[in-house]
Amino acid sequence: MSDADIIIVGSGMGGATLAAGLAATGLRILILERGERLEDCAEARDPAAIFGKGHFRPAETWLTPEGARFNPGNYACVGGNSKFYGAVMIRYREADFAPIRHMGGTTPGWPFAYDTLAPWYTQAEALYQVRGQGGIDPTEPPRAADYLFPPVPHEPAIVDLDHRLRGVGLHPAPLPLAVDIDRWLARAATPWDAFPDTTGGKLDAETAALTLALQHPNVRLQTGVTVHRIEAEGDRITGLLTSAGRLTAPRIVLAAGAVHTAALLLRSANADHPTGLANRSDQVGRNFMNHNASALLAVSPRRNASIYQKTLMLNDWYLTGGPKGEPLGNIQLLGRVSAPILAAQTGLPRALAKLIADRAIDFYVMSEDLPDPDSRVRVRGDDIVLDWRRSNWAAHEALVARLKTALRKAGFPVLLSKPFDRSTPSHQCGTARLGADPATSVTDSYGRCHDHPNLWICDASLLPTSAAVNPSLTIAALALRQADRIAQEAA
């Protein structure tokens, strides 16, 4: 007898949401997670411990193509990276699903339009209790209804920022957030962005989706289990070789994240599939994308007494703004960068860091990284090799410049910016992209592998393009759509 009807590898945004979508079917679902649950502790709200000492940062290392080791900053725990996410749950814009000409090239588009995913976005927003307000952002795609919950309130400094930005002709809007702000602040007065959720204040993959799934007796979670290889005979997946032994199910779903899912497929090569499973197209591991991102601190004589700050976004240059009308990207606030965080991230003396942090409002500037087949994940023995080749960087520099010009007009005379590097994961995606053509994609539009009818993928690997917004809601919407498809087949 098989160990389950469906085994899901990974409990992050994709895997947990898929389990929630399937839980009511009665199918026996086994979720495998290589990490453990995060327990509450003093360090969970200590910025010096998190950002200075790296208390929660895993010891895992990957390789550059040249063989240098680096810590990628990905987390292995129940809920995955969502335990530390900024809780931004924003829809891809309608234009993101079609080919778009960027400064750095043209995106391939998706095999379906925004309308296909729209109802699943609505369901995902309800599942994750997203706080937001429709009708304000000029790039917002069509919605069947407004959010079920009002937006997380701006703090006074952000109310003032909103007015200043409007005064220079921009269109700030509330950032859609999966945060129960009262519950979060009841634990401690800190930001949530990059802080671990150990008491349920964020609606992450564990607290929202997995908690719902595990209320059903047919759903099980097994932690501390690493999947080493996938077994296949011909086009059928026959089992998983794991640290807990061999496990089998009629359907296997990989939801281990864009890098680990690709690495597992490549590592599972056999005589029938010498270049890796699901890789007849030679696309597994290719098209790795990681948003072009920078932190920007806008400093003025005014004090910023905000605690969490991250409630506002700007999309004025999302669809246009380049020299020939090309899109530039999304701007949103970072979680409040306090003096301990700034000192830890820059090496500045604590007194100088406090002087800057007390008077700064902190922005996250994000531009689309375009798919490139030579930007890829490989395996070298037991090691993961990440050959990330940035693209579209000129668009990102243009976006940073646009924001700086606007902020100076809005009364922020000192502007400090710094790009993120490969040690800061900025929404990794694209290594097993979905598509209609088996020659150019790894899965069909639902996430079923073209080469293996009982193997599915349900994480950021599927994304054909990165767009220029946080991918969590899109991953969740794809997972709910996949759950519906599997449920129909199993009925």
From TrEMBL:
Its cofactor is FAD. Pfam families: GMC_oxred_C (PF05199), GMC_oxred_N (PF00732), NAD_binding_8 (PF13450). Keywords: FAD, Flavoprotein, Membrane, Oxidoreductase, Transmembrane, Transmembrane helix. Residues 198-292 form the Glucose-methanol-choline oxidoreductase N-terminal domain. It comes from the Bacteria. One of its GO terms (molecular function) is flavin adenine dinucleotide binding. Residues 423-479 form the Glucose-methanol-choline oxidoreductase C-terminal domain. The chain crosses the membrane at residues 6-27. Belongs to the GMC oxidoreductase family. This is Dehydrogenase. It comes from Roseicyclus marinus.
